[in-house]
Each structure stands twice: as structure tokens, then as C-alpha cells.
Amino acid sequence: MDLVGRDDLLATVRARLAARGRVLLHGPAGIGKSAVLSAVVPADAVVLRSAPGEADRHVPHLVLADLLGEVRVALPAPQREALDRALRRRPGEPDPLALRRAVLTAVRELDPVVVIDNGQWVDDATARVLAFAVARSAPRVLVAAGEPGPAWWGEPIEVPPLSAAATAELMTRHGRVDVGLAGGNPRYAIELSRSAGGIPDRLLADVRARLAAQPADVRAALLVAALVERPTVRMVVHFGHERAAAGLGCCPLVRVSPDGGVRFREPLVAAALPLVVPPDEVRAAHARLAALVADPVERARHRACAITGFDEPTAVLAQRAAGALRRRGALGRAAELGGLAADCTPPSAPARAAGRRLRAAGDALDAGRHELATSLARAVLRSPGVPRGLRVRAQLVLVDAVRHARTAAGGIVGEALSHARGDAALEAPAEYRFGLHSALGGDLREAVRHMADAVLLARTAKDPRTEAMSLCSLALCQTALGDASAGGTLDLARRVAPGWMVVTHDGPLWVDARLDLFADRLDSASDRLAALLDRAAERGALSEVVGMTWAGVEVWVAMGRCDRALRRAGDCLRLAETIGSDIALACYGAALAEAYGGDPVTADALARRGACRAEADGDHAFLVRNLHARGLAALSADDPEAALGPLRRAARLERDMGVTDPAVFALGADLAEPLIAAGRLAEAAGVLGGARACAVRLGRRGVLASLDRADGLLRLALKDHAGAERFLASAVEAHRRLRQPLQLGRSLLALGIAERRRRRRGAARKLLEQARQVFAESGAPRWAGRAAALLGDTPGGATLAGFEARIARHVIEGASNPEVAGRLNISVKTVEGALTRIYRKLAVHNRTQLAARLRGEGEFPVSDPVIGNPS
């Protein structure tokens, strides 16, 4: 059974069941207890199973009938009679002792796994009998329940929420993604992902039932807690629910912290609670809160939620509060409050209401709240009396909300452009979006035409923002196409861009950073991206943070700062999963960082996920990048044959897009090297020749250095040792001059191999030692291991790969397998497999021997196979 994100839990439960025999899984409804229960039952076991419902608790021996009703075991006559009476096969009440002995005999004979789902509904008569049998026979018992229960159920293990990554993966399989609202609950995740928007009725009914199970005063207190930003027990008391405050501590829906803070255990319950309470009660609670809270922003929100009908003064108050939140960088809350302001706007002013909704939608887009932005835009399109200009703007919001998911936009882009014809102020931003989607779809030449039209239209309409955005995107497209006029286009964008726009994702600083990377100005690119990321974080623009971080990862990897790249790429992926968009971008960044600084298996998995998402989105640019990352992962694992498929496809896509600047995707050398290793020398020569001609024309020094390395390896394969040494030495010198450590390390490694082929052992050893040091200082242990393997001087000849070394470090520090898996964001199975290999490599049998061996050597031995076959 494929349970997303549950590898660690399954391993823990299986281990506890094997060691102690009894396990209780507990947690809230929908968290996945039943699925885990089914997954851990041994396939070859005799299973006695029951899944009672709430009404079954009042039927004596009903669960016992589920467990033993179909079982035939030879029993002494008194025990058989007692069991038959308990199961209603014979009239009369069973003898209590004989019944207990009968169940004990059956359990001893069958040696079953007793599986009870919904243990809280086991009838009392069955519970007494099972407690007797379990205490005297120690069978394997698996129970799932909402809360821990009696001792015979077993050792309690709480089923935790899924991680953001696992929740996003699960939701992606079923439809839309809303990781935050799902709260890691698998059932909620599936239900939400299948809904068109909002909270499905079935989940609302579940929350309504759970709320009804609480006392009336606690229900009122929970409503207050759901309506305020940061609820506390003191606030509940202040609201007039003093008695209920004590009840919150026992309420299963919330947690009360030692400082008095009240937090809902599940985000969906907090969001759904105001929807299942009668509207009059919700408005009354908001009205009282508006009079009690001190914060003016919160006061405005409660006032807006308390009114019935429309009220312009309240709308103005809410709009001003939204502006205050925007200035604080709380864009998500600003969007919500802006939407409330629009809802309060009288219907006699449809244009004013639409403008407020569109302003709120802009905040929602920046905050990564794309569903909220879509909802606000659709409300504008549904409203009568809204002018054409605002309708077109609403359509453009729908386009922007899908981000890189070009296919999800359907025909909205073309429709918006059609409706905008004849009005330059509308047509310019529509042309700009059409150009963006053309670029995403891989047609850069069409994108250039639409961007150029957008520039002229924006200039006519005196719209500097759209003109600057269009010029910036046009410059990037021209760069990819090898058009030398890109620099002039960007100069023009700098002159017309408003000051605030310089530090946004669609402004000149972003394009400068990209062009700096292509031109090997890494320090400048890093500084520009740092400024962009800082500004985006200050503004609370989460989508921009994701959109910029992958580019930062490219720069940090090029600078040999793999640790930073790994850390920031992991944060970026978690953020993308939380906001539910830009997954292909974030996967690419994480895969690139792992390919150099981490584990190639993880890198490949991330890049596969990113490529699948990009392909589904119709995003050719990030399909190419993720395919490239897959190739790099395979090269890191020394599997050139595996690298060829994704790299060849990436090269075909690059060619189809019309990209001629070899620095944009930097594929040439990385494709040529596995071609050479696989003996496809003519194909490699063609790749290198085409890339070199463009790199020379455009002055791409870093690309030329990497191509020199690949050319050197090609000549080495052709046994032109002098030519190989000349090209490789040139690559080493160029990468050193450009301060590109990882590329320098790869060139040193290749030159060391060439020297070995010429039997210059001393020179080869010196070069390989330099390569190992460069890789180690750059945080690339996997690549450092290649040099170590060629040097052949690791202790005892036994070596660990970089990924294995990371696991070994955690293990000898005392971490358990699940703890290691959590720290490295991998599964327990992966840790167990790696430990098996480590023990075999180092000829040790347990953790104590492993610690003694590695600490005695003073450092972790690392190695890896070399590129191709150097012998």
C-alpha cells in the first residue's frame, strides 16, 4: 500500500509491534489511522479484525462476534457453550469465567494479530474479555482510536500530521492544492483537493458534529477563538465566557499553551467553525469583538464582519486597515480585509467595489494566496455594471493566479486580449501576459513580438509599469535568442521603471541578476538577488520569494556555496508547497542543490517531480531545467547512461524553443560528457561544436571553459593526449580566474585523469588532491569522493559516499533511524538501507563498532566512482 509521507511511521509501528506485541495508534479523525493499521498487518498472519461504530458500543459482545464469529477452534464443552451464548448462537447468558477461558484458548491456538479500528467504540463486555486474554497470552494487538485508552490496547503512538511536502504530493494526485488548510490531515487533503473551492459540505458536516459534542459554553468560546487572530484564554474570559475557559483545556479541538494561548489542533476546524454556526451568532460575536479589541485593524475587520447588508463608512474603514496591513507586509490579511471592504460597498457603486476587490486580489497574488485572488477576480466578473476595463483586469488576475501553470489558464489570456482591443491601457498588460505565456510554452519568437507590442501600447497609454515589465521580459527573451540588442532593451527598462519596481521580480534588478549569471559576474548576481529576496521578504511577497530563490540557488552553486544552496532551496520548496504553486521552480532549485551538495537519489526524485509538474503546466523552460537537474544527478552518481535520456530531451526542447545563448540553460558540456563516457564521440563533437560557436559569438567565458573541459575529455577518448591536456589546462585556468569552484573541481578532476593516462603519477596526484580540496570546501562531498577514490589513499581502502557519511555522522552521534530520516528529510527505509551498506563497507556489525571505526580514523572516508572509465 502506497501511503504518502508515512514511511517513518510505518517502520516505527512495525518495529514496536514486533518488539512489544501491542500498539495503539491515536489521533484525530481523518489523520490516516485506519490506512496505517491496514498497512502494518503482517501478510502471513491470522488476522482477527473489527471496526465498530459509535452505536455498536451498547451491544454486548458485538466486537467479540466480529473477531471470533467465523473462527472454528476446538474448545472444551463449557468454553464452547459460553462462547456460543456470547455470540448469540445459543440462548442464555454466558458463564463469565468460561467465556474468558474460551477466548484465551482461541487466542493461544490461533496466534493472531488482533486488529480493532475505532477502539473507543468497543463494547464493555468485549473489552473485559479481551483484557483478560491479552494479559495472559500476549498476542499481537493493533488498535486505532481517537485518544489513548486502556493498557491492553498497547503502547500509544500518535499519528502525526503529514509534512507539507507529503500533503502537497497527496493533494496534487487528486486536484487542487491547499496545504495550509489541510493541516497535514490526509482525509482533509483529499476532500479539499477534489473540491472546486472552499470547504466541502462533508467536511463542514464533520466539524458541525464535533462541535455539537462540546458543551454550549465551550462552543461559544471556540467561536470566539476562531474569529480572532491570536486567541487567548484571557480574551475568552474577557468576552464573558469565564466558565468555558476551563473547559477549553479539556476540549479535543484546541490546545492551550502554558502562557494561555489557544490554538486549534487542525486549521480546517478553525476555518470551518464560523461556517457551521448560525450567521446571526457569528455576526453578534464579531460585533462584541469590535467593541473589545484594542488593535484598530482587528477592530475594523470585526466591524466589517458584524454588519448586515452594505455600509460605505465601514468599507472605507476596512480599506484603510487593509492598507495598514499592506505596509506591515501582512499581504494575506490585507487581501482578506480588502475583500471585506468590497463586500461592504453599496451595490450602487459597482466600479468602486470591483476596484477594491482587484486591489485585494493583487495583495493575495503577492502573498501566494492564489485561490483567494481567483475568487475575488471571479466575483468582479460576476458583478453587473462593472466597466470593461475592470473586467479585463479581473481576467488578467485569473491569468496571474495560475503562475507558471500555463495550461490551467485555458483561453483566458486570449479572451482578455480580445476584450482589451482598442484600448491601449488595457491592451498593453494583456499583450504582456500573452507574451509571457508564449515564452512559457516555448515559443520565444512569438513572445518577443507580443512583448514589443506591449511596450509600444504601454508607452501610448503612459503606463510605465507595464512598459518596464514588458521591456524586462523582452530583454530576457532576446538574451535567450542570442539577440545582441538585449542590453539596450534593459537600459531602456531602467530608465522608465518606477523606483519601487526596481526591486520586484518583474523589474530591472532581476534581469540584471540573470544577465550577471550568464556573463559569469557571480558576486554581482549574488548581491542583486540578496537585495531582491530581502525586499520580497519585507513586503511579505511569498510568490516572489519562491520565484527568486531558484535563481539564487543557481548562483550559489556556481559560487561553490552548496550548504547555503541546500538550505535555501529546502526552505523554498517548503514555501512553494505551502502556497501551492511554483512547485516546478522550487523542485528544480532543490534538485540542483542536491545534485552537487547532497544526495543524487534525492536530486533525481526532486527533478522528476519538477519535470512532471512543468510538463503538466506546459512550462517548457522549467521542464528543460528539471531535465538538466536529472542529468546532473546521474552524473553525480557516476551513471552517464542514465544522464543521457533527460539531457538529450532537454537539448531538443532548448533547440525547439530557439534558445541560442548556451549560458541560459548551460547544457552543452553536461550533455557532451556522458556522451563521451558512453562512447558516442561523433554526437558529442556535434554538441560541442554548436555550443562553442554561440559561446564565442556571445562572449560566454564560463561556458567556453566548461566546453574546453568536455573537449579535453573528447580528445582523451580519441587518445590525443597532448590536445586533451591543452584543453583541460585551459579549462582549469579559466574556471580559476572566473572563481567557479565546482566547475574548477570538475576540470581539475578531468586533468588529473588525463595525467594518469600519461602515467604522470605525481602530477595526477597533485591535481586530484586540489580537486578534492576544492570540492570539500564547496560543500560537494559526492564530487570530493571521486577525487578520493582516484587518489586511493582512504583508510583501509573502505570509503563512504557523501550521503552515507552524513547518515553515519548522525548515527554515531546517537540519533535513531527515524531521527536521522527526519533530519535529512528521507525515509526510514532509506536510512536502513544506507546503514546496511555502511556496515558492509566498513566491516562492522553495529553502531558501537561503527563509531569506534570512524572516530579512530579521525575523519570520514568518502569516495565515488569517477567520470567514465579513467583506467
UniProtKB/TrEMBL annotation:
InterPro entries: AAA_16, P-loop_NTPase, Sig_transdc_resp-reg_C-effctor, TPR-like_helical_dom_sf, Tscrpt_reg_LuxR_C, WalR-like, WH-like_DNA-bd_sf. The lineage of its organism: Bacteria, Bacillati, Actinomycetota, Actinomycetes, Pseudonocardiales. CDD domains: LuxR_C_like (cd06170). One of its GO terms (molecular function) is DNA binding. SUPFAM superfamilies: C-terminal effector domain of the bipartite response regulators, P-loop containing nucleoside triphosphate hydrolases. Residues 793-858 form the HTH luxR-type domain. Keywords: DNA-binding. GO terms for biological process: regulation of DNA-templated transcription. This is Regulatory LuxR family protein. PROSITE patterns: HTH_LUXR_1, HTH_LUXR_2. The keyword DNA-binding applies. SMART domains: HTH_LUXR.
